[in-house]
Amino acid sequence: MNIFTDGHTLVLQGAFDVRSTWEVRDAIYERLDGPDDDVVIDMTDVTTIDATALRLLAVATRAAWLSGHHLTVRNPGPAVRRMAHLTRLAHAIEVERVAATA
């Protein structure tokens, strides 16, 4: 798992699983403790995800909301969306809405 910062966005690349959850967790909570209101997690290049990683996103989303912030997931791929629905955590993670084009 590679984690990059692009402004207010955390960019994740690779396999997001139990081996990388602590590293991602630390990066998320570091941003939530900072002066910025929102955290965006770009998951465009996340190849696989497991239930532990999704649980981390759900808990961090709730923690952000409770502290008056927002945590939003951007561009979750098909594997991420499928696992979110299988684990029934899709409702607990805020996904960035993209306007439909005509």
UniProtKB/TrEMBL annotation:
PROSITE patterns registered for this protein in UniProt:
STAS (PS50801)
The record's listing under CDD domains reads: STAS_anti-anti-sigma_factors (cd07043)
Q: Where is the STAS domain?
A: 1-102
InterPro entries from the entry?
MlaB-like_STAS, MlaB_ABC_Transporter, STAS_dom, STAS_dom_sf
Under the heading SUPFAM superfamilies, the entry gives: SpoIIaa-like (SSF52091)
Q: Which domain of life is it from?
A: Bacteria
Protein name stated in the entry: Anti-sigma factor antagonist
Q: Which organism is it from?
A: Nocardioides oleivorans
